[in-house]
From TrEMBL:
Cross-referenced Gene3D superfamilies: Cobalamin-binding domain (3.40.50.280)
PROSITE patterns with a match to the protein in the record: B12_BINDING (PS51332)
Species assigned in the record: Candidatus Allocopromorpha excrementigallinarum
B12-binding domain mapped to chain residues: 459-588
CDD domains cross-referenced by the UniProt entry: B12-binding_like
Pfam families in the cross-refs: B12-binding
A Gene Ontology molecular function term of the record: metal ion binding
InterPro entries membership: Cobalamin-bd, Cobalamin-bd_sf
SUPFAM superfamilies referenced in this protein's UniProt entry, alphabetically: Cobalamin (vitamin B12)-binding domain
Name of protein: Cobalamin-dependent protein
Amino acid sequence: MNKLSVEYVKSIRENIETLPDGYEVLNEGVEIGNGITPRRSLFLEESGYETYAAYKKDYADKGENTWEVLLGLATLEEQIDAIKEIYSYSQRTGLSIQTVQVIPSFLTALPKEYRDKAPKPTSYVIEKPEDWLDHQAGVPLQILFEDQVLSCPNSLETTVNSVKAGSELVGLVSQFIWSQPGFTDDRQHMIDMVKSIGIVKSKRDRHFVCNTYLDDGFPGYAMDCATYVGYALLEHYIVHDLCGARYQVSWGGLLSEGQNRLAVGLAIHELLSTEEQPALSYINGSTTMQWDHDIDANYGPSVQEMLLEALADRHYKLQLTINPVAITEKITTPTLQELLNIFSAGQRAMERASDWENIINWKPIEDIRDYLMEEGKKFFENTLNIMEAAGVNIKDPLEIFMTLKKLNPSKFEGTFHPRISENPAYTPKYPTVLGRDTLRMQEQVIADIKERGMAEDALKGERIVVVSGDGHAYGLLLVDGVLSSFGAKTVNGGVDIDPSVALDLADEEGITNIGISVHIGQSIDYARQIAELAKKRGKEYRIFMGGKLNAILPGKSEATDVTDLIMEQGIYASNDLYETIAMIGKKK
């Protein structure tokens, strides 16, 4: 056990305000849940399955896969129309689509009084209780509410409405580390989250489950695949062992290497699945191998990825749902047709599954699985030992969540990983894509910039604050590394940073250069807000932005490039880091 890790966690615990008893909070949630009668979905009514879990088990027993579409369009009306079209499409083609997982905007995660001042993303907002019910759209599909529900600041409202609407998977646990614009009361956030887990727990007999998506939480910052497994064990301990709720795991968006990607899930399956409760819910398509210069070519890695995971699901009877991502996912919000296209490609690839099933050697993946199981258990045990030594009550779910909430996500792995905490230079045996590809991409980008004639000390003497506007760290780490390599001294402010906080950090450090990494739909509103705030402060900042430079504009239903609109705000917008470095250098 690393002493510095203990001291770091202890410093966090000592500064946490008084908390109520976690079990009293949990039981308040159970009482709320006991007063809710979930609606039975039209899918269950027409299919005859008692629960969504029974449907998945039946398909696994028959050697068939289950699939879902992940959908988040610009307005509620478009969303409902799209759900109808998905069902119509499945009827016309004969392809098997039973589930739609919806993704409303992060504004749904905020209490209503905070929404007006928050940046407007590309997806729709669920405003009224009846909006949740309207997603059924009169068609026999299972509608699942997971993003922006169980672990958000607005979780009591969103969880109650998800359960009422009959969503048997309620998520996503891992997103509790996310910050939402303008909301700073972490104590109330965690209290409401534990209470929301109690609401889901109250429907345990009906197989309602607290679901997680590992890539959206601490594992999204990890360099070692073993961290994925260890963290899943930690969440399972809190949600299942302490709270008594059902718990399942989804993962995959940041893991694109087939063997490692599957081995993570298989390790969790072996450690946590029981006959009565499978451990895995869905595997998300990855985007790390997608091109942005030849979009159609992205069918290649996507189809082989879906084929392998669907074959693994059949071979190990995982009861795993395949969740494809569109070939445009890396650069913009996918259209409905793009989602249907990738879904069709994956399902049609499985028409010849028998050609592959008897020739695949699963042993190499099982060897990785076994290693990750052992390392994951060590990670989990080390985490609890460090927390207990730091004075955290490891029998109280609220106290554990509150401690984790206050933890810097970029320090999570280095604090609790038994090997990395003792040796920061440790090279993982099975690194994550973040660990391997971030360094690889940094090297490629740096080499390209140098080949174009940029001097190695082009940013010497420049100090730059770099932040991410949402919970994704990938782009932030890349930009930080590239700017540093050309001589800049960077201050990494982390993820989920509001415009005002980005400016505060720059002011505290006496820095005028601010770099912002943005995700889908954030860019234009973020640019407007930070430009207005900067003007009010009466200071000259050099602000630049990169990432997903698109948004759904008024009157439009699809995301469009907004680079020019951002530039009109006085903010430099580009994904060409050569040009960005040149811009900063010219303004010395």
